[in-house]
Every structure is written in C-alpha cells, then in structure tokens.
Amino acid sequence: MRILGFAIRWPKLKQKQFTTFRFERKDRDWQVDEVVQIRIKPRSKGGGDILGTAKIVDKVRRDGEAFITDDEANADGFQDKVEMCQWMLKNHTPEQLVRPLHKLTLEWL
Fold first, then answer.
1. CA distance 36 to 52
2. What is the DSSP string of 57-74?
3. What is the phi/psi pair of residue 44, to 5°?
4. Is 36 exposed, middle or buried (0-12, 13-18, 19+ CB in 10 A)?
5. Nearest to 74 by CA among 3, 4, 11, 7
6. How far is CA 51 from CA 8, 19, 33, 102, in A?
7. What is 2-108's CATH number?
8. For the segment 15-30, what is each residue's pLDDT rounded down to a tens digit?
9. Of 15, 43, 72, 80, which has the fewest Cβ atoms less than 10 A away?
C-alpha cells in the first residue's frame, strides 16, 4: 500500500470524503480505486503519524493552478486560490508548478 502524505493536519482530513491536489507522477500515478495510507509528515524521522487508510474515489486532471477555483481551494483548506498558490510556491519549485495537477477525491475506509 502506498503512502499519501500531508504536511499538516488539515481540517478536511476529519471529513468522510476529502480532496487533495497532487502533481502527476512519472513513475506510477495515483489511480481511482487505489487504497492508500494517509500520513502526516511521512518523510520525518520515524515515518510520521499514520491517520488511517483511504480509497481514491475520483481523479480529475487539471493543467495548472489557473484551473483551481476559489471554492476548491477553500475546500482544500485555504481562503482562496491565491493563498493556495502561495503555499504551493513555498513548497515547490516554479518548474514543478508547470506539471499537470490531479484533483483526487478520497474517502476514509
């Protein structure tokens, strides 16, 4: 089972179903019906905190932050898409930000 990591405990993680945006992976991209383990800071010493397992129930490709709406950014834990873009710029290089994004919808098992 693969790990889907989060940097912080977003309030959305308390909902039965939640969304997250992930860059397209070159090795093995996320797939609908895939079961993943949700962790906070999985790369930290000790492997981070395991929150549980979830299933990817939907995957929608988005080409860049211009296709993220304020409502989606708000559901993802931000005030608006500007704040979400600022978060992404703080955590990713500009080169990474031009890669396609996928909006994943997950449901806790």
1. 9
2. EEEEEE-SGGG--HHHHH
3. -75, 165
4. buried
5. 11
6. 12, 15, 19, 22
7. 2.30.130.30
8. 999 999 888 888 889 9
9. 43
